[in-house]
Amino acid sequence: MRVEVAGESALIIYFGEHGQPGVAAAVASAAEQLREELGYRLIDLVPSYASLLVLYDPFRTDHLEVRQLIDRVLQRIDGGDETEGRLVTLPVYYGTDAGLDLDSLAERVGLSVEDVVALHQAGEYRVYAIGFAPGFAYLGDVDERIACPRLATPRQRVPRGAVGIADRQTAIYPAVSPGGWNLIGRCPQRMFDPNAEPTMPVQVGDRVRFESISRDEFFALGGSLDDE
């Protein structure tokens, strides 16, 4: 782990070179502790795959004090426990009417549709980062047997709730947007709601599991197959 200056009132902590469960756990743990340690002196924390950006109020603290607090927190973190973080279960309807690329992905990786679904919901995924759009959580790592590169030509409109795979990551689209991930299902859970508290059901460092639901259960939970 190393700390570098990232601006006049910002420091960035690097926990490793690549995102992986242990690193993500360390990022989440550091963010939680620094939020408490810095308190009113903190402007924002921006966690990512293997780093944490710390933005502080220069009128309430200074570089030296923040650096000392960071060093104190890092001394308490030993690599990160892969079992740390909340476990969040999200429902998914896996069907060819919901997952437009389910058949083609299965054919491409040489498995049956049933095997693809089984492997996707068998995994436990770490929330590595949230970006691209509010509530778009990058989850990893997908079983290498169902890993698949992005589409050669991205879609102009991907519906809200679409569950996709890109390489060894999986995600749920929180809103209608362009996208090139391989779509394998739909989730009725809103991934971002500005009127809710909290606004997102997951945060960086959480662990996510997917639970297969039927088409009827999907609709009962408020899901829709319209291009909304």
UniProtKB/TrEMBL annotation:
<dbReference type="Pfam" id="PF02682">
    <property type="entry name" value="CT_C_D"/>
</dbReference>
<dbReference type="InterPro" id="IPR010016">
    <property type="entry name" value="PxpB"/>
</dbReference>
<feature type="domain" description="Carboxyltransferase">
    <location>
        <begin position="1"/>
        <end position="202"/>
    </location>
</feature>
<dbReference type="InterPro" id="IPR003833">
    <property type="entry name" value="CT_C_D"/>
</dbReference>
<dbReference type="InterPro" id="IPR029000">
    <property type="entry name" value="Cyclophilin-like_dom_sf"/>
</dbReference>
<dbReference type="GO" id="GO:0016787">
    <property type="term" value="F:hydrolase activity"/>
</dbReference>
<protein>
    <submittedName>
        <fullName>Sensor histidine kinase inhibitor, KipI family</fullName>
    </submittedName>
</protein>
<keyword id="KW-0547">Nucleotide-binding</keyword>
<dbReference type="GO" id="GO:0005524">
    <property type="term" value="F:ATP binding"/>
</dbReference>
<keyword id="KW-0378">Hydrolase</keyword>
<keyword id="KW-0067">ATP-binding</keyword>
